[in-house]
């Protein structure tokens, strides 16, 4: 019902999803627990992450981070494109991909204009400009959009589909092992690095090749921009400290950081040991990533800014900038998942899919799933796509006797692989709005990126996915029917 209202443009998607969750209670499907779905630990994880992101943007720390990454990598045109992709990707791991793309675009456009001005000077002086120089604006701006999408799925707080996976997993499989921030990072970070490097080569060498050399000096531009920022302010230093603490606490929380076979323990293990020695009940297992995230975020309301500015690093006016509608969207997705399972709809759909696929191998099913979701997310919201797809993929994995993560993880990742159209994802729309990317050029590059996504995601889930989540071991006891 909510989605019909949203499709008709009568209400926004967040309100529609909120309506969907409570609509399930109208039909007595999940009424006793419907409100709980809107305050899951994953909601708290994202709430804290959003607050930290708001403060990073408030004190302009994100711009300094991006410029320093560019300073390390940048220089010639090929490296500048890579630098922008890496800087955008890193920021998108912690900030929304939309905010990251908006922040990177002015710097990107400034470089494009400088590059075009240099080429005009060369032509006016009787020189010859390589025709491939026209591709610089295409590769740089598309690199920003692609970097935002690729970086987003590197962390659990980087993009909504990752949150949907976590929230729905606790509903679909209550006994499933927790996917922690550190476990996901160990799986997704190597994947993102390889993905970004291959995408960079694809963009700058194959789809829109750049000239091998150019007199353009991007380092001068980067140096000038850093000079404008001046030295780090007191607020930037304090936010950097909180941001670093936030990342380290999430990465090192897990009781055993590298699995049961390696005795390297996280801080929750030592907290348990300390409390046990004091005769207190163990609470380390009660502390999840959501607790850490919201706890660190609350310190921002307590830490003072410099005396010259006054106040705190964050106040309630800043908190109002948190995208609260997205949090409702996550809760609504979780409520929908519970409705799917409680009503038996997901089981019915999975049986039909299993009959349709017949004796197809899990590999064929994974490739088909990634291809379908990648195509669907080009024309549909990734949150809508993932909230409806995950319950069906969970039931399908049970029907074919496969580990649920073998289908759930590539489905989640594929929902973030929207590269073809301006409407596919906000970063695409932002760079397209520059007027420098013809629609057919974006489609051509997007088709190549979609093909790359199908290949890489399939390879990654069968390699890194197996190492991190044991996805090839067959259906586990916690998922057996």
Description:
This protein has helices at 2-7, 13-26, 41-58, 61-73, 77-92, 97-124, 135-152, 160-172, 181-207, 218-229, 234-251, 267-277, 289-299, 316-319, 324-343, 345-357, 362-376, 382-400, 404-414, 426-432, 439-462, 464-469. It is mainly α and 481 residues long. Helix content is 67%, strand content 0%. It is built from 22 helices and no strands. It has one domain (2-479). The chain is globular and about 75 Å long. α3 runs parallel beside α13 (289-299), α6 (97-124) runs parallel beside α20 and α8 (160-172) packs antiparallel against α19 (404-414).
Relevant terms:
single chain; 481 residues; 22 helices; 0% strand; globular; disordered N terminus
